[in-house]
Amino acid sequence: MGIQANIVDCKIENDGDNRMVEPTTTNTHIPKANLEAWQEIVDIMAELIGIPAGLIMRLNEPDIEVFVSSQTEGNPYHPGDKEKVWGSGLYCETVIKEQKKLLVPNALSDKNWKDNPDIKLNMVSYLGFPITLPDGKPFGTICVLDNKENQYSANFEKLILKFRNIIQSDLEIIHMNQVLGDQNKRLTDYLQEIQTLRGIIPICTHCKCIRDDKGRWNSIEHYLTEEARADVSHSICPRCAEIYYPDYDLYN
């Protein structure tokens, strides 16, 4: 999971299956209230499990960044720390690629993980789960790391999964609020356009210019474009075609 400057690349060797998803960058805005709640989650998680680092990681391609970090003694990770994710050998890279739990009790005694970047930070054990967005794309991970061997009990796994599910529920609500916000804005704009078109429009009897709410007289084209936010397409009606272009058969 290590997010530090100047970390060397390390090839992942994993004996698991090859089922992987194609990750994408997430630009979801997380409100302050949710960030504060997530901070409490990682703090409680680290305290109950008794480890130095509890993290929520966010995928922001081509990087992965520490999004929320527990405020615990001995935690070497800080919010905003980031590292290139693909091909880095980070624990979280595997979690995001394979979209499933990763447990490494002791990387020092595991040939697949003994050279991973987090060893430099003395983080030798890892347990992490994927966090997904409502559309199924990866948001990042929730994980814990320890500076000693740790098997992490089944109860600890259940605890982290509960916290993960809370975060995913928050992401669903955030997504729906953003969708509803966009829809409400479009509806408001639409109602304003209707109100404009339904109002009494002062129009010159002779030249057909329209007076706006500031007293200025503009052409119909200008009014529709600027006030009603409509696009104007010029054509010619059958009556005018007969009067001005009698030699052309435009409508027959």
Summarize the structure.
The chain is α+β, with helices and mostly antiparallel strands and 252 residues long. It has helices at 32-49, 91-98, 154-198, 220-226, 238-244, and strands at residues 53-60, 63-69, 82-84, 102-104, 125-132, 138-146, 210-211, 217-218.
Task: Please explain how this structure is put together.
With 252 residues, the protein is of the alpha+beta class. It folds into two domains: 32-172, 2-Layer Sandwich (Beta-Lactamase); 200-244, no CATH class. The chain has five helices and eight strands, in the order αβββαβββαββαα. The chain has helices at 32-49, 91-98, 154-198, 220-226, 238-244, and strands spanning 53-60, 63-69, 82-84, 102-104, 125-132, 138-146, 210-211, 217-218. It has a six-stranded antiparallel sheet with strand order 3-2-1-6-5-4, with helices on both faces. α1 (32-49) packs antiparallel against α3 (154-198). The termini are far apart.
**Spatial strand order of the main sheet:** 3-2-1-6-5-4
CATH class of the largest domain: Alpha Beta
Q: Mean pLDDT score, rounded?
A: 82
Low-pLDDT parts are 1-23
How far is it from the N-terminal to the C-terminal residue, by CA? 74 Å
CATH topology of the largest domain: Beta-Lactamase
The CATH architecture of the largest domain is: 2-Layer Sandwich
Structural class: alpha+beta
- Calculate Rg over CA atoms: 30 Å
- What is the CATH superfamily classification of the largest domain? GAF domain
Strand content: 15-25%
* Integer count of domains: 2
Task: Encode the helix/strand succession as letters.
Answer: HEEEHEEEHEEHH
What share of the residues lie within helices?
Answer: 25-40%
Number of strands: 8
